[in-house]
Amino acid sequence: MEIKVLGTGCQKCKELDKMVREALAEMNVAANVEKVEDIGQIVQYGVMLTPGLVINGKVKISGRLPNKADIKKMIEEENK
């Protein structure tokens, strides 16, 4: 599973990265988590507002900070 946390380094972006890693650990799911801070790469995903969350190439979140339960649900959907 490939997960990308999109954000230029703001507090919400850092918090999303932390929550994603915690959710994966709690679920015992292996994933390659990458923090993408380059604005050019972020725009390529069509994300105009950060933070953004991309799982397996699909944009799941843009412009808001989800709760950990939502993150776990997204991971489960893509881990089938």
From TrEMBL:
Keyword Disulfide bond assigned: yes
Swiss-Prot/TrEMBL keywords: Disulfide bond, Redox-active center
Domain Thioredoxin-like fold: 1-76
Protein name: Redox-active disulfide protein 2
PANTHER family: THIOREDOXIN (PTHR36450)
NCBIfam families per UniProt: redox_disulf_2
Pfam families: Thioredoxin_3
Cysteine pairings via disulfide bonds: 10-13
Superkingdom in the source lineage: Bacteria
Signal sequence annotation: none
Provenance organism: Desulforamulus hydrothermalis Lam5 = DSM 18033
Keyword Disulfide bond listed: yes
Active-site residues, as the UniProt record annotates them: 10 (nucleophile), 13 (nucleophile)
